[in-house]
Amino acid sequence: MKIDNLRFQPWQGNRYGNESIFQIPILIVGESNHGVSRGSEKDAVFTHMLIKSIICESWKHNFFSNIQRTFVENANTQELRSEFWHSVAHHEYIQDWLPKPRVAPNEEMWAKAKPIFREVVAELKPKCILFVCKRLFERVSLDFPASNPLVIDADNSLTLEIYKNSHPTVKIDNALASWIYHPTSPRGGFRRPRGVVSSLIQSAGGTDGFSAISESNAVITP
How many domains, the chain? Predict the structure, then answer.
């Protein structure tokens, strides 16, 4: 898949959609990349390169590791990492390089990214969208209607320490969308957002990663 006018082409796993471990198409949306351009051809496959490096463990980053373990209990083998990443799509909303971490996009960058995001959603047709940045969700959600808030299971006590039980959602085309804190932020990590992600996937009509993998015996939980 290639979408015109994108600097960073989204990752789309080869089992993305109904054949994924979640049984629905799930799009994960990050805010931005930081660094310098490597030229248009390398920029286009930058997200693909990162995720392939994560899968084969030639490169590690807590951002991606925490996303994996928010969705599934374990991602400690190449097979398990491949199963997860080939079950989802991943897109970086801002289509410009930022100079370093914790630098906010400017208004021009936000404006440029808005129609591109709509194009990505139209192409990928997700049923579930997770924004892995609260600020990003708050900006994007202004353009879409609110939907029923998520109810977080009372058993997810770690989640309820950080997130409110009526966690906000919006409808983006046919997808139910919500947010978690940035995976490497002080409120991030992977255990605390699990209750949000599990509720979001199930509310969108899918099977959460813990149930799906348990049923398929792909992961043995300690």
Answer: 1
